[in-house]
Amino acid sequence: MNWPENSSSFPDNLKDRFSGHNQKIWAIGGGKGGVGKSLVTANLSICLSLMGYRVISIDLDLGGANLHTCLGVPIPEKTLSDYLTKKERYLQDLVTPTPIPNLSIISGAQDDVGIANLKQMHKAKILAKMRELDADYVLLDLGAGTTFNTLDFFISADQGILTALPEPTSIENTYRFIKSVYHRKLKMAEDLLEVGPLIDQAMNTRITNNSTPADLINRVIEINPHMGKKLQAEVNRLVPKLIINQVRTQADIDIGFSMKIICKKYFGINLDYAGYLEYDASVWQSVKKRRPLLMEFPNSSLVSNFDRIIHRLLNLN
Ligand SMILES: Nc1ncnc2c1ncn2[C@@H]1O[C@H](COP(=O)(O)OP(=O)(O)OP(=O)(O)O)[C@@H](O)[C@H]1O
Ligand SMILES: [Mg+2]
């Protein structure tokens, strides 16, 4: 694997870093629990930090925080609980370094907060303050579910990444998640562009139960081309990346391509298949040892899987 050891081979990135405008937020989600979101968040964070980027991983699986285990660190002393209860005033003060150079973590709440209960005010504050964190990449481990809060973190990120398993329940949940994201995004665009009445009008005419969200937007374009195009542009910005985890066969790998086609056909959404991760016993072995996978098993096939995915996510291919 050809990972540069430091950032000196990224002059453009360095330039951006010093201008302070290039921080990117990636949110890792997926409808179902146990599909590998924390594994993906932890190891993408490690890949980026090995490439010389300064990374902060945030555990937003409030109530079920375990990202620290995937990164091989003990529960940090300060967690989001301290921020939510105002014990800590600044998000930056929760940033805890890990033994991996360039990589820090903000740990999730350890009490029973639950992301569904996160107040609008707290969510807005975390979203705004995340942008001020001193890092090149901020990765969010979103936890399971499709609550509005989870969807909002996913939508607000610069890049949403979905993890799914190659099995029917997980695939269904992923579609449900994508559909919820789409509806939430339409709702936000509706408020932003004040096209609510147009959407209502489009819903009331011609749109049948079999219509896709793309049909709805086309109908809005017919009613008001200017606003419809704006709405379309807003929704087109949504191109989630998909990772299929725990693949065992070629058929499992191919599920990602089918999901991409189905998303386009039924939701009008461009899903980008970023790659797959093989099922590998080294995952639970590293979890058991509380050591980060990529560091503990540098020769596992998952290392090349992650290498390929990170290159695709960074558009380096
Ligand atoms: N590629 C893989 N090969 C083998 N085991 C895996 C793989 N990916 C994940 N696992 C196993 O699945 C379990 C769940 O993974 P992980 O905790 O990353 O999922 P999650 O989506 O974050 O779950 P939750 O929704 O509960 O937070 C891990 O403990 C790990 O043992
Ligand atoms: Mg998790």
Order of helices and strands: HEHEHHEEHEHEHHHHEHEHHH
Distance between the termini: 14 Å
Instruction: Name every ligand kind in the structure.
Output: adenosine-5'-triphosphate, magnesium ion
Give the mean pLDDT.
Answer: 86
Count of DSSP-assigned helices: 14
CATH class of the largest domain: Alpha Beta
CATH topology of the largest domain: Rossmann fold
Radius of gyration: 20 Å
Short description, anyone?
The chain is globular. The protein has 317 residues and is of the alpha/beta class.
Give an overview of the whole structure:
There is one protein chain. The protein is α/β, with parallel strands linked by helices. It folds into 2 domains: 7-164 and 280-313, Rossmann fold, CATH 3.40.50.300; 168-239 and 264-272, no CATH class. Helix content is 48%, strand content 13%. The protein has helices spanning 11-19, 37-50, 67-70, 80-84, 120-130, 148-156, 168-193, 196-204, 213-223, 225-236, 250-267, 282-289, 293-296, 301-313, and strands spanning 24-29, 55-59, 96-97, 103-106, 137-141, 159-164, 241-247, 272-278. An 8-stranded mixed beta sheet has the order 3-4-2-5-1-6-7-8, with helices on both faces. Strand 3 and strand 4 (103-106) form a beta hairpin. Helix 6 (148-156) crosses helix 7 (168-193), helix 7 (168-193) packs across helix 10 and helix 8 (196-204) crosses helix 9 (213-223). The radius of gyration is 20 Å and the shape is globular. Bound molecules: adenosine-5'-triphosphate (ATP) and magnesium ion (MG). Adenosine-5'-triphosphate (ATP) is lined by residues 33-39, 61, 64, 143-144, 245-246, 277, 279-280, 283-284, 287.
